[in-house]
């Protein structure tokens, strides 16, 4: 028999059992324990955050959307992390527009 999923009105994606948001150091301790158990101590939260921001930028998310997911308070930090991905995406879009324009001729 499957155990029923407990539903509550949690407002945070990463929250404690009481529904309060996890602080960075709390999350880091939990992730470190999982990384050790899985033999993945070479990976850091910072690296995952950086990769996540880049993937979101490449998917076309705005800086504000990326910040909402990564938790960055400063848009300049989001831009630092997403610059390369945004540039790659924008270059592809520009090339596509150029090719579309050439096909009209």
Walkthrough of the structure:
With 105 residues, this protein is an all-alpha fold. Helices cover 64% and strands 0% of the residues. The protein contains four helices and no strands. Helix 2 (45-58) packs antiparallel against helix 3, helix 2 (45-58) packs parallel to helix 4 and helix 3 (63-70) packs across helix 4. The longest helix has 30 residues, at 75-104.
Key features?
single chain, mainly alpha, 4 helices
Rough outline: elongated
- Rg from C-alpha positions? 19 Å
- Helices and strands, in N-to-C order? HHHH
The major sheet is characterized as: none
Strands, count: 0
Distance between the termini: 66 Å
Question: Summarize this, please?
Answer:
The chain is mostly helical and 105 residues long. It contains four helices and no strands.
